[in-house]
Amino acid sequence: MEFTDPDRTRLAVLGSPIAHSLSPPLHAAAYDVLGLPFTYGRHEVASGGLDAFVAGLGPDWRGLSLTMPLKRDVLPMLDRTTPLVDELGVANTVAFRQEGDRVVLAGANTDVEGIVRPVEALGHLPGEATIVGGGATAASALAAAVRLGAVDVRLFLRDTAKAGPLVELAVRLGVTLEVLPIDSLPGTTHGFLVSTLPGGAADSLELVPSGPDAVLFDVAYEPWPTAAAGRWGAAGGRVLNGLDMLTEQAIGQIRFFVSGDESELLPDEAEVRRAMRRSVGLPDAITG
């Protein structure tokens, strides 16, 4: 397939910790189906190290996927941003684009669609939502909940004093946000819950589905299943794997890397998705 800037073929995921990331096999599977000569690696980059890493990149670099703790660190470095990055203040994707004799850094957020598409695949459109955790992914989860139809959202945090940015975002999104301490979870039930905590961090929490159609989207995937996901499923609820999100946000990133537009479908995208899901041990379709 044709793509812009054909001399730019190197890509990688950055973050800390990063050794567990399954982004490399996901992207490799997609580029194999698409017939693209891209290589995709992983690099450990801690907070404060992104500027130096980018400064050391050569002209063959095409883009970067960003995970914690870099999704906000990157913002001052970006020359172009999508409206969603501007709205959320979070970017998980950077593309290097040649404009004349200048290299432009363009940023996008594909995490929101990474949550929205798997939930839509289950046919679940919640009127209310719960988010556990307050990091960069929580902002994307809040925007995703609104896109899915939620008008009331509960946010559970270990430190409610840190809720300010998410409260401001909720106002901009026009959604009612109730901020609660995480130790008030016992005794509550949830129709749609997104846990944005890293792997294992939610294992001691009491997360209880409100009924058989209730969905837990646990963005962690290592180890899997998490104890929280196991208990939710045993209680009769439906569970989405963090790899479902990883796959869908990666598809948005690949679109952005290839065409510059994360909403432009890839050629034979259904086959690309199947290959990506198989590469990380997922079934061909989302089942919950």
From TrEMBL:
| MF terms in GO | NADP binding; shikimate 3-dehydrogenase (NADP+) activity
Q: Does the keyword Amino-acid biosynthesis apply?
A: yes
InterPro entries, per database record: Aminoacid_DH-like_N_sf (IPR046346), NAD(P)-bd_dom_sf (IPR036291), Shikimate_DH-bd_N (IPR013708), Shikimate_DH_fam (IPR022893)
Indicate whether Amino-acid biosynthesis appears among the record's keywords. yes
Example GO CC term: the record gives: cytosol
Pathway as given in its UniProt record: Metabolic intermediate biosynthesis; chorismate biosynthesis; chorismate from D-erythrose 4-phosphate and phosphoenolpyruvate: step 4/7
| GO BP terms | aromatic amino acid family biosynthetic process; chorismate biosynthetic process; shikimate metabolic process
- Recorded protein name is Shikimate dehydrogenase substrate binding N-terminal domain-containing protein
Q: Which organism is it from?
A: Curtobacterium oceanosedimentum
Q: According to the entry, what is the taxonomic lineage of the organism?
A: Bacteria, Bacillati, Actinomycetota, Actinomycetes, Micrococcales
